[in-house]
Batch of 3 targets.
Target 1
Amino acid sequence: MILSDTAIRNRVTILVLVVLIIAMGLYSYITLPRESAPDVKVPYIIVETSYEGVSPEDIESQITNEIEKELLGLRGVKEIRSTSLEGLSSILVEFHPDVDINDALRWVKDKVDLAKPDLPNDVQRKEPTVSEINIAEFPIMTLSISGDVSPVVLKGIADALEDAIKAVPGVLDVEVLGALEREIRIEVDPDRLAAYSLTVDEILRLIPTENVNVSAGGLETEGMKFHVRVPAEFKEPEKINNLKVATRDGKPIYLSDIAQVRDMFKDRASYARMDGVESITVSVKKRVGANIVDIAQGVKAILAEARRQAPATVKFELTLDRSKDIDLMVRDLENNILSGLILVVAVLVLFMGWRSSMIVALAIPLSMLMSFAVLQALGYTLNMIVLFSLILALGMLVDNAIVIVENIYRHVEMGYGRVEAAMKGTAEVAWPVIASTATTVAAFVPLMFWPGIMGDFMKYLPITVSITLTSSMLVAMLINPVVASMFSGGTKRKGPAHQGWFVTRYRDVLDAALSHRFTTIAVSALTLVCILIAFGKFHSGVELFPDSDPRHGMVNLRGPQGMNIRDMNALTKQVAAAVNPFRADPTGEKTIDNVVENVGTSGSTMNFGDSASGPHIANLTIAFVDFDKRITPSAETVKSIRAALRDVPGVEVKVEKEKHGPPTGDAVTVRFLGEDMRTLERASEKARKLIEDVPNLVNLRSDLEAARPELRFEVDRERAKQLGVNTQVIGNFLKTSIFGSKVGTFRVFADDYDITIRMPEDRRTNIEDLLRLRVPNSVGAAVPLSSLGRFVYAPGLGTIHRIDQKRVVTLTADAEGRLGTEVLQDVQERLRPEGQATLRAVDVRDFAAFCRALEAGARPEASTAAKRVWDLLRPPRLFGLLGRNESVAETVRQVAQAGKAENDSQREILGAINRVLARPDFYRAEDFRDAPLDDELKRDLARGFSALSKNERMRANRLLLEAAFPGQIVHRERMELPADCQIRYAGEKEEQDKAQAFLLKAFVVAILLIVGILVTQFNTLSVPLIIMTTVILSTIGVFTELLAMRMPFVIIMTGVGIISLAGVVVNNAIVLLDYTRRLQRKGMDLLEAARTAGMTRLRPVLLTAATTIISLVPMATGISFDFRTMSWALRSESSQWWASMAWAVIFGLAFATVLTLVVVPSLYVMLTRATLRVRGWLGATHEQESEAAVPAPEAN
């Protein structure tokens, strides 16, 4: 091999290269930005338009509709979702994954510009904001500031911190919540206005003309050039009082005569508390790609300085610190890497001795250091995906080195010198090593093209593994041979025949397999079929991502529209008090670190256009103690809190765990689409009642918000026209009087405060006072509001959601204690338009009583059809029909006698009943004359039971079943959808289906790529097909693990694990068959070549498999050694996430290794001989076919 030979001849150059790799790798590792999850660019653009004080219906018609019309023509749009709520229009545009987000942002901005002329004038002045949604921009740190000082002092400290933190490199934005905002308010006395015959409109025009700072240009005089300006901005609030408003009877009227100027705070829009103490919350967001750890260090330095300067009573608490989470995660994964490394080296020492193992082990640090340098060059961060990828690759990093070093030592034992042995040993296995690396990388290549958010999240795994494995191949080809040529021993080791009982036993097993080839292969295939059947019947379900113990819990509160913030604040305090008992477990061990309350804002990290704020919204964020300090799992604490808050009056409560990974939606998401909100409301409410008692369904809620009560001013248009007042003037006048209007800015150094005009609170809360207000008309006079119309109470719409221009109401829920897919199946069953089709355990009130009723007599008063149902379901008729007389009948008797039923017994009995209910051949038309069925169904039944569809039959049977067993079967209403209403399912299931479809395609593409590489290497199709059987048979191990450990099939983790196996398991088969064919080329008999290759490659095969398996054990079990505290860690937070993938690879590779050593030689011999026979039948001689089977023998 030219490359390795050149390296061996230039040792000094290679040693310098090693030093460079170490230096660059260490520098890259130290400087790589750290973050918990990868930066993921979601293909969403959000358009937000503010129009304060406007109802949701008007927001929808005047803003949302106009902008959506323009957006419809955009290319690459997957879905347009919008939310119209009071004062705000929010439109979310979701693009297909292949659309560049920067192009999408530009396109949306262009379309919004086209829609601007059609928007209200006030909106045109403010302009809609268009921005992309970036997961990385959500808070990485949250700070709580509290203390026994005035609100003004506390706000000043928060503002100073905000300015200081914004200057930290990498910080994108700082948000302050819970602080009081200063405002200069002009409160106009309506009685004095009337006395002076003035209107609010005159003051609105006055303030902007007086509060100005005008630059008048330059003036050159007397040889000097001066800048001329008119600095007339207000410096003191009191100065505003002296403004002259008008003149009456020759006397000036000043603002102080008709209004009071107040330096005060705005109406409270939010509250914040930490552990029950009033506080201000400061949230820090980072820029994309910024190092969270560096930002955190900068923020903590600022906090330390703030603590020194602030009053002693002021407290600063970090309630959220992602850098701490990252530090714990990195430490956890580093411990797993180091523990795996030690285990790998221990295995190498055990099999190869100290000298060989140290040469081989060099591949691990050098490959990783090379990978760090490449990752930094690509601009990647060090996150949990990258770190796990290194763990996954850890055991494989030594595979190439093992094969090469082992072969070098074999040549040394054959009598070659160190240098010559290194050259010959490396050259002999160079192409198999390259091919095995290529096949492993090929398995991961399809994963790099995973579309969507999930792909952006998971792409770091295939890229990191590919980089690391390629680095390990370069180390094995360039550096390991050089080191081996310098330090390999010259002593001859004992040959395979004397290597102990294990080799002897393997030889006996291999001889038996080669002698009974067909039996060996048939048993393997039968095992695969049996395990697949067993998995299909006894599996533990399917889920998208593994469930894990959360670091945080959230309690989201939503009151009715119209609820004021003071009431919501009081209710939030009650909820926080209900959470306090869970701060410690029954043994007194602390479970909760802190609880942060935010009133007026939602705690959801990604609302995607939902109302994230408002006086009726509140949130509690519960931070749990660190994972290694938890006695009670935080998931259990969340469950207990949910139970305690189940019946909070007057507010909707959602208690949920923090979710890890990319956003996937809720376990259950049901959408009702149509045009009429009343219709959608009725349909969604009925659905809610039908599914609310589905087992393990929690956090069921609707996004349909009750309408805020409206007070409408109905304009008498004819009268208003006579008085010279138009409707717009009336609307703007009321807005200024009630809500207030901004008329200017009051500047104090770098801070800006609003100057607003508004009526006094005691004059804007009474309708009679409002009606006495005077509205300016077109001739400069003023008329009473009462002469222009009247106020009427009327219901309005709450928040209006739309998808692709159709109004939508969405029901969402989570699953707890059961897989989300199973809960969703139950929900879909309940919401069938033809009614629930099957009988489930939850529909039986008392299962033991039901089984006793099955064996009892029919009720005389039952209808004919109901009696027929009873007769059909009664043992032994039911079970005889099914051909399972003894089994099911005995189960029914056991349950009836025991008085209780296990889950397996329930499934067996209900399965039998449902199969009978679906049969079409039990009824006659006359059976249904007195049946408790609706007229429509009776008419259908008149045609004959067999003429009905399966669902119609099951619906009829279900109703008859309820009649046959009164009081035992829960009645389920039919979900009737109006003609103009559609139902769609979305959420986690949608993402799960997409991920499943992609991974299946990726697996097929990976197989084709691997086969293509193998065909290129072996120049035949039969050998690659033999090697690929190990991939198929490796799934025996995966499914055995899932059954034995009762683990669900995690689509992302287990699916990626199986694809990873496709690349890993072929490596040993490649080396084994390559050596077998090499022996054949040297003239060895086929059977003896297969036997000798197996014996010779036994140790490398076992070593490569053992190192990969052992390196994943810490991650799979969660047991590792903490090298920072020098203690054992018996639990690992990261293993919750990655254990399913680790176990899949461990079991799959273990089974595949055994099959490689036994089944592959047998299959190779059988197919080769079969090929020879076929060719012999075609007229070729045995000698000719031997030459055709493998290339001619090499010259010795």
Target 2
Amino acid sequence: MTGTGTINKTGAGLLQLSGLSSFSGGLNINEGGLFVGITNGGVLNSTVTLASGTIIDLNGLNGIIGGLAGSGTITNSHVAGTAGTLFVGYNNENTVFSGSFSKPRLDFPAMVNVVKMGTGVLNLTGVSNSQGTLVINNGTVLYSGNATSDFVTQTVNATGVLTLDNSGTNVNNRLGGIASPANATLVLGGGSFNVTGNATATTTEAVGALTLAVGGSKITLTPTAAQSLTLNVGALSPLTVTAGASLLLRGTNLGGVVGTANTANLVAVTTVPTQLGGAGAVGTTTMSIRPDILVDTSATGNGTSFATYIGAGGVANVTGGNGFRALAANEYASFLNSANTANDLLGMGTYGGVFAINTTINSLTLTGNAGTRAAGALALVDTLTITSGGILVQSGNSVMNGGLIAAPGTSLFLWTPGASTSLTLNASVTGTGGITKDGAGALTLGARQLFTGTTNLNGGSMVLNGGANTLFVSGLGVGNALNVNNGRLDLNGNNQLVAALASSNTAMAYAGGTITNLSGTTATLTATGTGTFAGVIEGNLNFTRSSNTTTTLLSNNTYTGATIIRGGILNLQQYGQLSATSSVSNYFGTLNLDSTNAPAVDINRLNVAADITLQGGTLAFLGFNGGTSTQNVGDVTILSGASVINATRSTVNTSSNAVLTLASLTVSDVNTTTVNFTSGGTLGQTSVGNSQIIITNAPTLTNSLIGGWAVVNGTDFASYLTPDSAQGGVGALGSVGYAAYSSTALTAGTATDNITLGASVAGVTTRTVNSIRVSAASTMQMNTLADTLTIASGGLLFNGTASVLAGGRLTAGTAPNTPATLYAYTNATATLFSPITDNGTGAVSLVKSGTSTLTLTPANSMAATTTAASNVVTVPSTTGLVVGQPITGNASIPTGATITSITGPTTFTISTSTGVTAGTSLRTDFNPVPIAATTTTYGSPVISVASTNGLTVGMAVSGVGAPVALAGIATTSGSSNVTFTANAGLYVGMAVTGPGIPLGATVASITNTTTFVLSTNATQTITGGAFTANAVIPAGAVITAINGNNITLSAVTTGAATNGTALTFGIANQALTVAGLTYNGGSVQALKGLSGGVTTVTSAMTVTTLTRGTNGMLTVISSNLTSDLGTNEKFIPGAA
């Protein structure tokens, strides 16, 4: 329903609400009632007026209404007993409801819960019997007239107010009292609780428990001049579980004699309140106090003293009596003195605030600009221990200079009650309880802090003035939680890392404080923990969300710097926005634009002018549960990694839609990137229950695809349509309205075909197709090992479990000899028996994406069939196989078998028939052939081999020569210098092994006949030891030319090898050939101070104008050397 008119409901039936309507006119229920048919169903902006006898039946679900008025009943008929919750107040109107919140009958199991939202006043004047819960997140709930309730728990969060107004009709125990059945609990989590008395009768209110939750709360008790007002509580939550909770308790003549006119009291009638201190008698300076509770004898005051409890008979620390009151003047000490644990009050002009040794007191109250100062030889570490943790600035601007401040076992409570009061803490707080700041005044932290635990800001301002990370961050980069529940935190130009960023009210936007940076220097706030923040981040600052945790923001954050996500999740919920951020960079994290339960469904949560960068990150728009919603963002750039862009319509209301619009989409590096467009419903369809991702600057399609790197829901390649009334935006290839997959078979596919396979196919010859999608378990068998399957877009998508590509070779690219990327998406397990090769001279990259496993087998693999006790093996093709190749991977062929002869185009024999069993294996691996080298020469790229059978240009080569013994070794731990007795056969580049030599160490240089330098430092000191050096073919070397039995490598050897040294051609489990390598000739290595002109040519190397440095050495790798140098130059020719 939309519009502004009035709707009148008549008739005895129930009108079911199965969506969330936005109309703002009145909804009058004159007969019958409303029935909530879906979670979050209702009328967001309309006030519902219930006539007498009419109902709203929550049906065990969440219902939403703008306002509530009239005299009907809110009930819940869910027979299974599921509680129903009414969210009321979104239209911010003031209403009066004289009806009730009630179960159908008292023994019925289903409860009615109420959550007050919005800034308006909900005035309740009727009697309710539901034993559910009342939560006030914003605005006011007012009990007046005859109003009472049996809510088991009533919670008042920050920005919420609960008022019991007895000025007209005096009703005691409106909240249910201490006795059953209600035994109600009142929870204050930063909200306000007010009780107003009656002019003609004594007013008494009672709750079973008063619980102080995190946040700065207020209780205001206002009796009339002629009558008293008493708030009785069975128990008050102990201080040990309320770190971060603070309370201003104020009332007219608070703590006077109970029952006296114009006097307010808060009395604990069952359990003695927990207090901290020396438990001294009334009238002494060692009385115990509550550092988290400030009291004031005025109903409008800001607090003048820490609270102390006076029980029955005027005795401290017992129940009953007159309850909480302020400390009297004679109950303060005036000097810092450890002789007794006193409550100290220091005034301007006193010298009691100086301490030169470790000093312990119970609490500290400062007035008239008084402060403290650490003095003496150890002033930096002198510690002022405040056992209760309470510091109060009554008036003025106080400074605490130097030393350490400790609050053992509790939070340090710092109170600056008046807006004109301030405390500057030029000292470091220690301890593990964190700090809690309350009051309208200012706190400046002028030194780096040492405390761990949570920093709670409940009111006023807090300025970080101790440099970067004023709040403690460990050497490992671990911060502590920050709760900005109210007030303002100023970074003051300092970077600050915290753990959880949160506020006490996690249910309502704008219910927290403000984080800003008032300095002209841009600062960065980093949050690493899980938390929900209902306040606002503003100013010239950057915000970084880091680590594998979740940060949720509920309000519009107007900071102008960058937003950076480094892992984990950043949720923008309710009114959560980053409306002024300059950019958003998402590195392997998730950014949720979450309108799931947000009444403001169509706000743009990101600054549409801000560029968005995804590097393996997720950008998700989650649509509103109550209806269709839209979201617009700026230009999106994709870096490396598997990124996701998501638009999901409501999972509760499946008749809704979600539409996400990107200004543009750019992929900066297609060689390392994939993008998965995901959705609820069918992506690209405008019909109800679907989602769309629209790109304003539409992508250019190639053969109907956005690119081989782009898929939809991980199951189809992504295409694009200009939006119209039926379809539009990103959609799956083959979905309604979009281009279809090719009907051509893979065996006949061409470069423009997007192939989809639902069954196995064999005999695939060399060809190019645009993409391949495997929709069901299938085997793709190449015709021969020589056939190559080229995927132009690089897109290879596996949906069928255990799918296989076998035989031949696999590559990618739109044209021969051009670089390309193969994108392998595995939604189901897949195996590539075919080697992935370069595209001619163009390098091919492999990008693996998808949640399932992709198995890459040894490079030469294909199916093979054996017969029991026979040495004959049948394969699709013997092309490329050579005699001597070892065979592995086939359970039917014994370990150690090799090819002995090629007997036909599809058959060969192996070296044994013993142990051969019958069977067909898709994976039979044909491994590299060991070939003996006759000669290698130091510094030469040419080696001689016994046979070149099976070798090809591009094959990888590896090998290690015979060991060279090195005797008389001396090393020093931490040094790379080695001395030895002789260097015969030792060359630069040789691998060195021995005690204290790290794995992979080589000879970096040879200083002289008895000294050489390692590539890394030794880890032991050795004298007279023995080492071994080996000539090696450098890692990564490949064949560049074959001339008879001489093989030219892409890298020179590092030593001489004798006849018969075993070299290995090809690398096991990797592709055999890499085409298009270039041989660049030899090299000249100039070390230790040599400079001058060096010219390298293929046939010879000419060195000219070489200047000699100290201990200079020139290593020449060449067949000829022409030089015109001075004397005393040392040459080590590679061949000598």
Target 3
Amino acid sequence: MDHSVINDLDIIDFAKDCKLFDINLFQKEKYGIVQVYENENQPVIFLKEVDSFDFITLKLIAEIHKICWNFQKVLFLYVYTKTEIRIYNCSEKPFGFNEETRENEIVNKLENIELYSCKQTDKEKLQLLNIIFSRIAIDTGFVWSSNEAVEIRKNIKLQNRVDKYLIQSLIKTADALDKRGLKNKFIIHKLIMRSLFLFYLEDRKATSQELYQSFLPNANSFFDILDNVEATYNLFEKLADDFNGSLFNFEDKEKDSVTKEHLKLIKNCFFDGYVDEVNPILFRDEKLFDFSIIRIELLSEIYENFLSELDKKEKKDTGTFYTPPSLVELILNEKLPVKNKESEYNIKTLDPSCGSGIFLVQSFKRLVKRYENKHNKKLNNFNVLVDILKANIFGIEFDPKSIKVAAFSLYLALLDNLDPKTGWWNKIIQFPYLINDPDDTSLKESGNNLFKRDTISDLSDIQELQNFDLIVGNPPFGTKNLLPTITAYCKKENFAQEMVLPFLHKATLLAPKGKIALIFNTKVLTNTGGTYQNFRKWLFNENYVEKIYNFSILRKAPKFSGGQLFGSAVGPISIVFYQNEKPENPKDTITYYAPKTYIKNDILEGIVIDSSDEKHLPRTECEKKDSKIWKIAMWGSYFDFELLEKLFESKSLRQDLIKNNIKNGVGFQLLTNKKDKKLKSQFISDSKFLDADCIERYTSQNSNLKGINTSIKTEIAKKFYGIDDKLLFANEFENISYFRRLGDLDAYLAPHLLLKKGLINNQICASYLDKACTFRDGVYGFYSLDENEDYLKVITVLLNSKISSYFLFLTISSYGIEREQIMKNEFLTLPYSISEEIKLKLVDPFNRIFQAKKNDEKNGAESDISFLEREIDQIIYNDILKLTVDEQIIIQDTLDFSLDLFERQANSDAVKPVFKIGHFINRIVKELNDWLDDVDLKVSATHYLIDNKCPLYMVKLSFGSEQKETVISKENIGQELKILDKKLWNEEGKNLYFKKKLNYFDGDDVYIIKPNQRRFWSQTAAMEDSKSLLVEIAKGNG
């Protein structure tokens, strides 16, 4: 083959035929050869070679792009000739055309979905093409992090992908139906979901023209049926019979409520996406959505998200949230693996809160695959499929709408294995009854697989719901609107009033000898409350916990980034793998995975767990109900854990405040409800007020002290006090003097220290004021009974120090997990005790900062106080905490890398390429040589000049009779490292990837190979690496 543009990308030799990946999307007769490039057995890019970009080819490209969009997994389509390449955005929705569409119109529309194009003669564009779209760039996710790809990233809008776009179309259609007089939300829900599933059946060849024409002559598709209300409901009635009720049962007077106009909205939605004045018609001759391509697991995702948007309050009240397929796959890869030809298929499985059935559908498909593994043939015998389903797949769900979708989803999974799929409508096959709902009188027969029940109620009389081999699922969580059974269960077990806890506990009763993997909210691990501690005591002492995944960082992921697992708003989540019975060979540690970043650093949409995110925690420590190890291990190292254990042993700021007569209290609360008791305070009314938003670190500006009425900011408070914005702005409204709570009146007097619950740019905000002022209840006020202003100044600098951020970030329950807010009792745990000598040392830098801030207020400037903050840090390190140099390094590394990464994510220095390696080398050589002091061996190091675009970095350690100077090798190893990088990835689930580090032993040399990010090459990392190397050497691996 002659040299062409595509060759420069080093990708074409690695591209394969789509059929090797079981991707049968492109008919060869129509589309020619379309190849796929994969990473970790997942398709990443589709590639198509063409002779030219003429009009016929452009129409072909538009058709291929539409297929790619419906497929959803792949983001890029590369189309190339010998001299030109065009890269199309598969996340952008396709456009429609027909025989009458002019060439310039298609050209313009294709340009709109084009991310990049380049001809062989354009050297500058070729260079950028290689930087962003080469094989190595794709594998390392350079497009998501490089400055060169900013404009490309802006055009990749994941909200336009097929699943997201369909959900939005359904939601807008539901809204349009409501506006056009269809007020019953249950009718809207059923009408849309029936249509969704019918189009799925049609595209999967599970319906036929014969079926449609039995209801409407000349009808060729469900679109034709939707032109006629009578025919539509006659079809629905037949499906209600064929699918055992399910979604097709009618609401009261439903048929009389639905008009032809309503059905036209449904028809338009599935043909073009939701169409209004803003959204023009996309497709004139064929529909936009192709359910023969859209994967079955996306139906649950689409349904859950649609229902959540349709009834946000219900979902919030019940604590239920859609489970992303990536987490389902992660859990089932652990508990129902199929990739190693596993063949045991009789595994009785329960989802105790099954929702629309995503866990059940995927579990059933895996059991079918295991059957096929055992019998070495494709399973398409309907009776055998039904037997596997009825014997092994069980769900419990409180919501009757969801359980009907779960039943239908399982019917579709049954159909998916059949060929032909049309047997259901002529009664050749009969779907089994699955739903058991005593309240549903429309069910002709009760099934024994999907139980409409309260899971936490007494289920002991239902034989089918006993002795499970496996329990998986995503139980509801939250602390509001608890069912009486939840409240009673938690009270009985002395657990916190938290929705998820009874599910986690009861699972061990439903599967006394089985295995369990459930999703829960992370605060269950970190909350310091006594009733949460009681639950942890039960979980870790009366059960065997194998591993935990902590995905709290994903709470901060941007809405449409690859890292955002949950489409709905949801708090931090974790997954626990456990069982009631102790195994024969129990481990002394619990495996704990806690990814620190949601950066989308691979073209494969998802999250990455690096080797540093994997910890093996001592089981004995985890069994302590008050252990802080879950939070520390999330962001710190074992060295941090040991250091914090030592520092928190004896002293605390709380004790020091008591000893020095320092009191504290919160600010006032406004009235917002007529039921509130009114408390009058003329003092608060007449005093200056400082808004929490205006409180600054160290001290706050006097110019921000305002009248009390400026505290009224919310609409509900303005309405209660009868305040008009114009009058408020003109200061023509009498000062309010009645409040819900007055707060601690003494805390308003000067001198005082104001401490915000919330953070400023992820920094603690303590402010010393020498002027009296009031404040609201989001602020704590500290004051001295002895008017000891110097002590208040010292507390101000201590609280503002980065070292306090370090302590609190690694130990308190919510900071970095649930919300960036710190409670007063958490501040008071800081391990500080202040002598008179230390007080004198810290007052001086504070006074200089205070004066600089006052000068800044006067001059409108901002002084550099960083050198004073470093001076304060050294006093804390050396005089208060009395830390060794190594302990100071541990704290500083956690601040510079972990905390900075949490705060700034993709912009953090922690993830930037290595540019200084000396500190790492010096530390690891010192650690190893100190240990080898009594042995006739010494360690020397070699490092390499590695390009900052290389995904890996490497250091070589050599063992010999003497220590030599560090060598800088000129050997070019960049290409080998790029190839090796791909081999270090391991896919554990859809959108979830593990990236291993590598210690490679070769004779007297050890090669340490890790990601080319600064956080992996710190001095603390060197201490950890030396420790693990010594363990490997002791085991004889070296």
